[in-house]
Design goal:
Chains A, B, C: It holds the Pfam family YjbQ. The structure is a homotrimer of 131-residue chains. By secondary structure, the first copy, chain A, is of the alpha+beta class. Chain A is 27% helix and 30% strand. The first copy, chain A, has one domain (13-130): Jelly Rolls (Sandwich).
């Protein structure tokens, strides 16, 4: 059994940003030499998410708007008593989940026809990690 | 370490359909001969979900209604500019997540008392895969 | 390849309760002797969740309030025709997901700076299991 871990760092320019990391993950898989197994893609921050979905700009805007509707920015989250202003980012992270697992088959990430992996930053402009 | 992959295909009759795949997964586990480990059940489509919950018809209707409330069909999703009409199905998929992992202990799927695995189709009447 | 399974039991005092199980998981990892791999933390009940997020009391109250807004208690869930009263707990469980995977690196749970694991009970005052 072989394990390979790599950490990625993101420093987004916008507060909320959705980054397609599929080709990065393909490179990591190649480097690892793993042929069968699973790749865990897991955000290391509690205000970020990871999902598998379509790479389509309109859809990304729909998702962003939808997340803001279901888990809106609000001044009066209790969490803000700590001095933070990112209560909504925690809720958005819970909503989309912070990790996915990609099956590896014959040395390839075993995706369906349109599956792409996104790192979703909900509280950006800080340095953030992913393993 | 042993790996075993199987692909399932669904061709649903309705737009939204929830299929209990627990017994299918039990058969696959038997075929694989794996005694300890994990089974990843992951939708290969970006308009489908996989969840673990109760097998109760009323609850399935409640879930369907709830998903339609939180991620409703709308004409004006930006994603529809591509000619698609399934924006809501993408959002529903993000909401329930597209995969689960089932622990395997002593050659059995290690479920709690009421846990059943569902494949949730949110944009059906097309052929869809699951690995 | 080494596998180690442990079951935890919770008997909460309140209907909804959020229990930080991070230190318990650290003890289990130590006992297991596993140095590289993944730890699956998966609720065995269909009215419970498991998530990774911040250990901050205000935030936990925000999350609780938010979940009650998105998946409220209602008298008229169809699931209640079975005699149950926990329809909302099933929906809350779907919303936050019932499991997480924690990467294990160098014999440690490989968390980001603020990541803590919570067991979320949505239908408490019964004995519940986690594997």
């Amino acid at each position: 059994m072989k394990f390979y871990t790599e950490y990625l760092w993101f420093n987004t320019e916008k507060k909320r940003e959705y980054i397609n990391i599929t080709s990065t993950l393909n490179s990591i898989l190649k480097k690892s030499g793993i042929k069968e197994g699973m790749m865990l893609v897991s955000a290391m921050h509690i205000t970020a998410g990871v999902w598998v979905n379509d790479a389509e700009d309109g859809l990304l805007q729909d998702i962003d708007e939808w997340l803001e509707k279901l888990a809106p920015y609000r001044d009066d989250y209790r969490h803000h008593w700590t001095g933070e202003t990112n209560g909504d980012a925690h809720l958005k992270s819970l909503l989309v989940h912070h990790q996915v697992i990609i099956p590896i088959t014959n040395g390839k990430l075993d995706f369906g026809p349109w599956q792409q992996v996104y790192y979703a930053e909900f509280d950006g402009k800080r340095k953030k990690g992913l393993s």
